[in-house]
Every structure is written in C-alpha cells, then in structure tokens.
Amino acid sequence: MPKLKQPFMKKILIDRPPSDFKTWKTLKSHQKKIASTSIQQHFKNETNRLDYTWLEWENFIVDISKNRIDRKAFDLLLNLAKEVELKGAIEAQFSGTKINETENRAVLHTALRGLDDKPVLVDGSDIIPELRATQEKMYAFCDKVISGEWKGYTGKPITNVVNVGIGGSDLGPAMIVEALAHYGNHLAVRFISNVEGDHHLEVLKELNPETTLFVIVSKTFTTQETLSNANSIRSWFLNQAPISALAKHFAAVSTNTKKTTAFGIDIENTFSMKDWVGGRFSLWSTVGLSICLAVGPEHFKGLLKGAGKMDLHFRKTPFNQNIPVLLALLSIWYNNFWGAESEAIIPYTQYLRNLSAYLQQGIMESNGKSVGRDGKRVNYQTGTIIWGASGTNAQHAFFQLIHQGTKLIPADFIGFKKSLKGNKQHQNKLLSNFIAQTEALMNGKNQAQVKKELDTIGLDIKEQKKLIPFKVFEGNKPTNTILIDKLTPVSLGGLIALYEHKIFVQGIIWNIYSYDQWGVELGKQLASEILEEIEGKKLSLHDPSTSKLLSKI
Ligand code: F6P
C-alpha cells in the first residue's frame, strides 16, 4: 500500500458529478430524440458528415463517422468537456500538479516521453535531469547486453531475458515486445507474472542460467507474485551458479532500491522509477527495460517519440479535432446515454493480439470506480468493460454476438495500411476484412436484401419466409476506425498514448480519481490471511462457503 504523505487530499480537480451539468441533461433528451435514427440515416441527413467526423493526425486516420451521433450530439459532447473544465485538468496533469489526490502524487508518465527538456516541477524541483540520466543508464546497459559486451558468469553473452513482474510491470512490456517483434534483435524475451509455480518452472526449463538475464520489475518491490517468483528464480539460479554471479544475471526496476539491494541486486543494475509514474502507465519508464533490450534503445526512443507527439496533440489541439478527447466523449455517449456496458478493441494485426489485455488494466483499473471526487457514490455508470482480440481471428470467434446479438458493443477497429514484411496478397485480404466489417456492422442487411439473395439461389417462398428472420442483420452498430500507415515503434507509441489520454478524459468527466487503485487491495489483504490458514499457522472465521472451500484445499 502506498505511503501517504501530508498534505493529503488537497482539492485540485473540480469535484462536481457530470449529471449536475446542464449539458448532461440536454444530452439525455437529445439521445431520446435521435435514438431511432440509424447511422445510415445520419449519413443521409448530413451530406457534410465527414467534415466533422474524419480526423487526420501524423500518419493516423481516425474515422468516427460510423457512430450514433449527429452534429448536435457531437457539439453537446464537446460542451460537456468544456463544462467539466477538461482543459484545466489536462494542464494540471502535464504540469505536475498532484492530481492523484488520494495518493498525493503527480501523474507524469508524459514527462518520460517529453519531446524537449523543458523543466517539469514536482515539489518545486525539476524532474527532467534525473529522468534523462536514468534513461541514459538504461540505454547504456541495454547496448552492452545486446552487443554481447555484457558477459554472464561463465563469459558467455546473454541470449535470453526474463521479465519478472505483474500488472503494469508485466502487461505493457509483454504487449510491446510482442507488438514490435519485427524490430527485435537476437535476444529472446520471456515473461513470468503469475504466482502459480508451474508458470515460472515452465519458463525456466528452457533456460540456461549462464546466458539468461532476469529483470525483476516491481514499482513497490513488495508485490507477492513478483517477489515469490524472484526468490524462487534466485534459488534456481544459485543451485547452478555462485553467489558472485548474481550481479551478472539479475537486474531490477523499482522505486524501492533498499529492497532491491536487500534482494542482492547490484545497484549498477538497478533502474529507479518515481512515484509519479503509475504502474499501468509505466512502460515508458525503466519498466520498459525488457522492451529496450528486445528492440534496442533507438526503437525504444521511437516509442517514446510517438507517445510524445500524441501528448502534444492531446494538449494543444482544439477538442473538436482532438482524437483522445473525441474517442473518450463517444465512449461516454454510449456508456452513459445508450446503456452500453462494454467496448471491443479489434486490432487487425496479430502483433497486437494482446492490446486489449493490456488496455484492460489501463482502462478498468483506472476507471473502475464508484465513488466520485466529492467522496460520494456516483449515480451514473463509470468504467467500461474492455475486451477484444485480433482481427480476423475475432471474426470467427465473437463477431456473431456483435452483429446479431442483443447487446450494444461499440468497437474500435485498428488497422495498418502496410504490412511489415511486404506480403501484398495477405495484406489486401486482411484490409478487405477490416473495412468490410465496419461497413457490415453499420449497414446490416435488411429483409429485402436477404430475400433477393434467396431468390437468386432459387429457394421457394415458404422456405424463404422461415429463413429470412435469421439472416437479417439489424446494422446500426457503432465503430471507430483507426487506420495507421504502418506498425512502427513511433506509431505504436502514439496509439498507446491515445488510449491513455482517453482514460484520463473519461475519469475527469465521470468525476472520479483515475490514478489510484484501492480496489485491488482487499483481495491482496485477505489472500495473505488465508495463506496463513492454508499453511496451518492460524484459523479464522469465514462465511460457510469460504470455510467449506478452505476445508477442501
Ligand atoms: O494490481 C495492482 C498493482 O498495484 C498494479 O497497479 C501494478 O501495476 C501491479 O499491482 C504491480 O505492482 P508492482 O509494480 O509494485 O509490483
């Protein structure tokens, strides 16, 4: 649990529920007004629809036209952003104000990817010089390992890297290492996260301690899963190597250098991070060490640069052309005015198959809150449920439900114009699916169209009548299309930063604190008590279900 420093809970952000604002009420009545107008109809009504729903930035195209909005809804949503003083909140975040009020912390993952060295002050001190020095230390270390200059305890170069961490200390690096595999070097990077013993043993069985580097990543260096895995791996290693070898094979990333030193990790191989970097926003920091090892410092810098450019776009662009702001507003539109509970994220590339798993933590750990910044229970829905998989695989898994099910599921379709390895035939097929799906979701297929198809195959009228209802697609399913030139470190950095800012905007509007995560504490607390019970050290009172389950273990 983070240590709380005084002063605590100093009010910085406004704390009015969005439902108090005039625009919220107007949005409600406007939604009722346009509820029966289909997206197709909006296109017919608005000949200039693409003028305000088509966005271009760097090599991104973001098409938000296939949504259940009209110009009035769009303007009202923008007005809501104004009413909640979003602009001021953005500035407060970027300038290092302690907007994470329940933990009394600044939120400055953006400083890690700043495009210049302009001072950013936390508690009156400029954080940039130390940040740059830490980055340089990380780059130098990675260069040595990648080039083979860094030798293991028997004089062999490192060939395998294992990132040991969980949550933000695992999901971001794991997702990016896979996403940028095309840009990778000879180092094979693996990830151990779960406390389940089989998990680390499965990974270790393929590894040679002489050529493996373990990177222990834990912001707090107290997380049960990471520490248990790190200790078991240390024992496995020391069963085969002398204690002096630890310095060559273990590195750490943490804010808690006392604990990393106590664990036995050389301070030279310890990379610090600061409390103003939240776990789920930390891949840009030294938490990205495994990424930097996998793709090298130049590509890692590319990732930072892409995110830095998106930061600038978010901070400086008027809201009516601001990609993260508009995607956040649309998400609020469906969540709070249309009753949508979840959102799907479908990247059309296998490299990003873990994007939704990564964003689940970012989005759901940040905005899964039910108490407003005013300390009161909110009376509206907050955080959306995030899920997804890569296209086209997802089409053969859950798209049936999106097309013909009863639930409203807004979806982001993310595609890349160019493939990385240049296979045009496959890329054309991939992109045809990418485009076809959003068109199909919007337009659907009506009875007349189905009938015409059945006529063509000669099905008799009686049979047609029976079959038609099952073959109709209602359509009117909303999607955003994000079309990017190519999957590169720079474009990926921009894409991730886009979603980070979307989270922030939604948290501001929902009047919640997006940067704490008290909701994960209770389970952790109980698990440590139950562990003592499982180990026979103590007996506690539980409800009948829990007691019976415990008796079976
Ligand atoms: O799941 C809760 C959490 O605190 C996350 O926010 C964080 O990313 C993860 O645990 C790991 O924490 P640490 O890096 O301190 O081990």
Output the number of helix runs: 22
Low-confidence runs: none
Query: Which ions, cofactors or small ligands are bound in this entry?
Result: 6-O-phosphono-beta-D-fructofuranose
What is the radius of gyration? 25 Å
Helix content: 40-55%
General shape? globular
Q: What is the end-to-end distance?
A: 28 Å
Question: DSSP strand (E) fraction?
Answer: 5-15%
Number of E-type strands: 13
The class by helix and strand makeup works out as alpha/beta
Strand order of the largest sheet: 1-2-13-12-10-11
Largest sheet: 6 strands, mixed
Mean pLDDT: 96
Characterise the protein shown here.
The structure is a single chain. The chain is of the alpha/beta class and 553 residues long. 46% of the residues lie in helices and 10% in strands. The chain contains 22 helices and 13 strands. The strands form 3 sheets. A 6-stranded mixed β-sheet has the order 1-2-13-12-10-11, with helices on both faces. Strands 6-5-7-8-9 form a 5-stranded parallel β-sheet, sandwiched between helices. α4 (71-83) crosses α14 (323-337). The longest helix has 21 residues, at 489-509. Residues 166-169, 218-220, 223, 226, 279-280, 365, 517, 520 line the site of 6-O-phosphono-beta-D-fructofuranose. 6-O-phosphono-beta-D-fructofuranose (F6P) binds at residues 166-169, 218-220, 223, 226, 279-280, 365, 517, 520.
Secondary structure topology:
Layout: H1 22-34, H2 39-45, H3 49-53, E1 54-57, E2 60-63, H4 71-83, H5 86-94, E3 121-122, E4 125-126, H6 128-147, E5 160-164, H7 171-179, E6 188-192, H8 197-204, E7 212-217, H9 224-238, H10 246-249, E8 250-254, H11 257-263, E9 270-272, H12 289-295, H13 297-316, H14 323-337, E10 342-347, H15 355-367, E11 385-387, H16 399-404, E12 411-416, H17 424-443, H18 447-456, H19 461-471, E13 479-484, H20 489-509, H21 521-534, H22 544-551
Parallel strand pairs: 5-6, 5-7, 7-8, 8-9, 10-11, 10-12, 12-13
Antiparallel strand pairs: 1-2, 2-13, 3-4
Bound molecules: 6-O-phosphono-beta-D-fructofuranose.
